[in-house]
Design a protein that fits this description.
Elements (H helix, E strand, L loop, with lengths): L7 E6 L6 H13 L2 E7 L1 H8 L8 H10 L5 E5 L5 H7 L3 E5 L10 H5 L4 E5 L7 H12 L1
Parallel strand pairs: 1-2, 1-4, 2-3, 4-5
Amino acid sequence: VRAAGGTVVAAGGCFDLLHAGHVGLLQAARRIGDCLVVCVNSDASVRRRKGDGRPVNPLADRTRVLRALACVDAVAVFDEDTPERLLSELRPDVWVKGGDYAGADLPEAALLDEWGGQAVLLPYLDGHSSTALMARAAEGAR
């Protein structure tokens, strides 16, 4: 894609309990460029970030569901707490994050500057989160 002059877009996250907010974000990210690579936290990375009991869906399931989305061209996994090493390898033109981040809060922002990449913040759908889904499911189970 890049060799043909295309724009490589990357987006990242845990993508545990994939929901409409995730799908909307990934569809919008794909419209920015010619290829969307989704960077997914490994199970160990999710556990460190979200705590015991997470992820609900193992990595194999999360990546399979992501690959099934028409807007996703490739999926890459990282084991660290942040995707900086993977981004250094991929060197995307655009790094997309959900609107719950502010530009200054992105640890990847300085890294993107190294190759002229840019961070783009896209809005999330209000009320959509894996944590909220888990809470609602737990309440329903009582």
